[in-house]
Protein 1
Amino acid sequence: MVEKYEYGSPVNTQAVVEEIPLQSGEPSFGRILPGEGFGYICPLEKQDVVYGLGENVRGLNKRGWIYTHYNKDDPAHTEGKHGLYAAHNFLLISGRRHIGLFFDYPGEISFDVGASREKELSVSAPQADIVLYLIEEASDREVVKTFRRLIGKSYIPPKWGLGFQQSRWGYRTAQDVREVVKKHKEAGVPLDIVCLDIDYMDGCRDFTVSSERFPDFPAFVQEMREQGVRLLPIIDAGIKAQEGWEVYEEGRKKGYFCRKKNGEEYIFGVWPGKSVLVDVFDQEAAKWFGEQYGFLISQGIEGCWNDMNEPAMFWSLDAVKELWEKVPPEEYAKEEKLTSSFARLQSGIQRFQDNPADHDRFVHHYEGRTYTHRQLHNLYGYFMMKAAREGFEKGMPGKTPLLYSRSSYIGMHRLSGVWTGDNCSWWSHLLLNIQMMPALNMCGFLYAGADIGGFGDDCTQDLMLRWLSFGIFVPLMRNHCHLDYKPQEFYQFEKKEEYRELIRLRYRLIPFLYREMISAAENNDVLFAPLSFDFPEDEMARSVDDQLLLGDSLMLAPIYVQNAPGRYVYLPEDMLFVKCLDSTHFETETMKKGIVYIKAKEHQAFFFVRKGQEKKIGEVFTELSIGS
Ligand code: MIG
């Protein structure tokens, strides 16, 4: 059952593809609050679990926190935060009833999931221009399937997208990349992709390659292809505002960059320095922007990752000027005022980055209307990807590009994948990765993953191996790292063979994973599910927050605690425990329903095969002689 309600004049976000007749009156569950802005409220029963909200902080069960979606470039994914880079406004209330709620709205929106009032879910947004979809089905899985049917089929990457990706901000030259590939080859560590971060560009300008550091780039792309490796370059949202540079000049001449209400170009700072933003909501501008990706295709590139597309802004020219006027240099001359003027300067500067007030300063043109950026903010990453995908379709007809984005909105799941941004080399972020996967899947993102080993901070060997032990099951499998932290390629660690064996395991799993992923996409299903999806009557299963079902045949229970020799696992039914000693040797044990303690060394990935589901995994690991 689906109900659709419209309030005010909503933006066509292109999240939903199915036509649903509009309903009038009050929704059959919960109610709309009178007053300014948008407000929705519904009861939560004591035993209800609330799933969803896609890319976010905290656990599988979202209850007990306020989440706010206003896409932001914030690398501190701590539990005190309220949101990350994406706005996935879908919730699933699982209890006696099974209810799905989707708030289709591209501006800032908050979800108080029983935090302020234990037994209440309340949703609020500053403007009452919203479409609400209310779904009710007989089970959690059915709710998700109905929602996914509404939003359309998920992106399936080319198969090589499931291969192992090695990345680091700081591979500066072709020689750096050659080294990485050579070391993987020599050690027999499978590798499909090396990501190129902003280092490959000429002065951080999109659609350029530094000819100094990457001479004859097309030949280099070819050379890597011959090694079985594809290069995946990054593209940032900000375009360098550099006079005389053809991309900027052309976009400016044609009026494709975002402007302020007074018609001036909106200038802000990001990696290339003074930058502008393409109005990706304007069809013509988007088409032009998409065509720029043709440059990469002409070099032999078959995909890319879109970054900084929240969009991230370090400062805006207007904000800088205003602060300068408020605290003019003359002030510093007066010694007695130094402290106060410095304090004002400092707090002003601290507000520069990603300030929503800046988002009111410039506008977009969409479907014949003018919107402030703030109104459409959460859609920017999606529409940037839409332009990119169309560009790739034109430049590489008939071939699916490999695409993933940092920022996203529901709807983008039809076009590309996502990676979950700047996590850290923390054990808690391995857990966060585990807990985010089902939520992302519910919102349509099947091709998804986190930076394995963590992006920020230094990764230790045990964390890397434990993370890989989970990562081998995750569709987007990338080891990526920040340039200021310890390199974390396999050869930086002592246990190189253990690392290699994990990657080899992954390659054995790819045919299985790819099939499961395609079947999830075709059936509008998740790849990763909370245990309660299949064991709804089991109280214990409903409370487990750190184990996942993978397809209909496996259960995962990763170890995410440092120095732990093992962990407790809840088995909701009898299962076969499989411990991978390496990529060709396994230990198995049949286990009874209940709580068990599992021991596994850092490099020993393990999983559970569900009762009667031995066949699929038996085909992958023939050594197990199961299910035939
Ligand atoms: O401000 O391009 O999330 O993966 O390495 C940081 C440099 C910009 C953020 C991305 C990260 C990437 C980094 N970028």
Protein 2
Amino acid sequence: MSKKFYVTTPIYYVTDVPHIGHLYTTVAADVLARYHRLKGEQVWFLTGTDEHGQKIQKKAKELGETPQQLADRVVERYKQAWVKYGITHDDFIRTTEQRHKKVVQHLIKRLMDSGDIYLGNYEGWYCLPDEAFWTETQVVNGCCPDCGRPVERLQEESYFFRMSAYGDKLLHHIEQNPGFILPESRKNEVVSFIKQGLKDISISRTTIQWGIPMPPDPNVTREHKVYVWFDALTNYVSALGPLDGDEKFPNFWPQAVHLVGKDILRFHAVYWPTFLMALGMPLPKRIVAHGWLLSGSGKMSKSLGNVVNPIELADEIGVDGVRFFLFREFVFGQDGEYTKDTLIQRVNADLANDFGNGISRVCSMIIKYLGQGPLDLNTLLTEDSELRTVAGQIIPKFHEELEKFAFERALEQLWSLLSSVNRYIESNAPWNLAKEKDPAAQDKLKKILMHCHESLRIVSLCLLPFIPRSASQALSFLGDKESEKTSSPMDKASWGKGPQKVLVSKGQPLFPRLERA
Ligand code: MSP
């Protein structure tokens, strides 16, 4: 039985069209999904849209359409963006789908039956844009402690979820499972939040029409809708068809890795696990929080008018250029400043120059000095071990870093092999060896070029999750069209594990240089 990997993105609000912040999480999930597939694992990758709640109801009203019309229109924008970026999700869930609603209602009913959801009265502060309730002490000068926008006083009959009963159990789980919340610094924030004591939270609304109805209850007179965060978080489970006897649920659920922005970590690392504990369900394996992409000094948002449209960006820069930049430039857990200039510099320096030129330079020299081939790769196993040693060091590190979601450090490993290749070419000067006629020089020339070739083949394979189209093209120029087709291509990203004979071709430039604006 092959290993299982389940990765999710947050489900995106349909009040906003996709921007580069949404792209960031989605490509991160795609890199991981592709990486684990390339390791021969069974992968399930879920994304989708969050379509209920007051925010959507309000926005639809402003636009003079129904919430469903708004959702139907905006969801297409997300789907188009993901096609453009080659996102390989296995499923796309919308919270307005029947398959989702029935799971939400089923789980709520179970919690009502067990007494973990009870009826009471709610009075508190509500942040409409965040759909979050805050206590008196949490509110900062009449504003939401998370987003800084004004909160409203709200009183209503409400169902409550007994979150207070699960704080200790959750702390214990976090302690016993290092890596449950990543990165470590964010885990510490969550732990101190839980240690302040968890309060029961309001889990239904009577003020909202656009939501999933709570199960019928003779004790209430008004209709209650399920709190939008309970509704939204449940998508990770409902998409696996738990009530339909679908094998995906037992197979994938315990392997779940939730990628989330730091702003929604609390919902994922406190609310969601306590819901699951109350339901007696296993918790996800990891919750990984990333930082924000900032533009100027602030977060990108439509209201600030500083959003970057991913489709336009792809048309201008190229899909792989953007995908690469997001993970080479920014440290995943931290905020990063986005500018077009740094994007162009990265693509030119790292992709056009180091990688693209590296490939075409080595392929050209092979064709010019050795002929097109097929070339015998037995030359790789010689006493000259300079590049082999570097490759032997960086490959395990590459995997280690990716397993830790340190995308930027994983890429750094590959770039250190690329610069070793460059130095190796300069110090061995194949062009001088090519002028010498004696067989020893010819033999050395062949070995040198094949060592460079092997290093680039390994780098290209490792780059497949990040820049799938260009890395695949690079492999084809290098004459390795087989590794990608095997059941576990990542195993081929190791010295001497490629095909025995390769036919190199000169190919086209992989990344044309971009002009700076
Ligand atoms: N609908 C909720 C998530 C429910 S998940 C059960 C939501 N949606 S959102 O559309 O507002 O945001 C989705 C994700 O996009 C969040 O993880 C958020 O952090 C991320 N980003 C939004 N803007 C961002 C940046 N500027 N930079 C990086 N990520 C950001 O929250």
